[in-house]
Request: fold
Amino acid sequence: MEHPTGQVAIVTGGGGGIGLAIATKIVAAGGSVVIGDLNDERGRAALESIGVPDRARFVQADVSHEPDVEALVDVAVDAFGRLDAMFNNAGIGGAFGPITEQTVDAWDVTFAVNVRSVFLGIKHAARAMIEQGSGGAIVNTASVAGLSGGGGPQAYSATKAAVISLTQSTSVELAQHHIRVNAVCPGAVYTDLLHRGRPDVTDEWRREIQPWPERGEPEMIADVAIWLAGEHSRFVTGEAVRADGGLMAATPRLMHHDLSHLQRMAGIAYGNTGRPADVRRL
Reply:
């Protein structure tokens, strides 16, 4: 697997999971990274785990807020001189429950964090890359949930479908500037967002629906994302690359397994932001 030695990158949602795996691999390969995360404690812990302070920065950021995303780009350019890759990875599980029970506020927050953040990341990364004149790569974290029904809660699935569509349309627009835009679509990957502290329970239904025997780990998705941002994929743009252990090939039915409980409650989950979930039992 190629690693982009010397690459300067921004990773949103870099305090843990897939984002931390991407950031760790970039620095280990000789690159530099700016981590953006709403959760200050996780972000600072991520810096400590990377252990190379001269090539890593952390900025507390609400990626649904434009000035925060713009600040991430400014920090990368000011600290490291340029921006080569933008990983729009931050996201939350978001609104869940029967569609008849979901609130407008929960729906809007889900789209703000999962879609608006990607729009803002593309916008401000592209501005910097165009100004540099040397091109670059943007990689958005989507999901297999955006490729079919039944792969996740309605709002989450809709946001990930939007990310895939935005990836395709902006890849066409930005190609003239030698900026590639791609998405990675993880399947069941063992982050806190998926197993919520119950990896053994989650593993039971994962084995039923995923053909590949090993479970998905954040480092596996990080390798794909880094490849999409690297020189070996220089003719790849506008793609949504599945990394799911054959889950989509076997047809996902996540809402009939571990996520079935979401039909007996409604609310919104904020992932690893530090905000507690708002849950109503039905």
Summary: The helical segments are 17-28, 40-50, 66-80, 104-132, 154-174, 192-195, 199-209, 218-228. The first helix runs from residue 17 to 28.
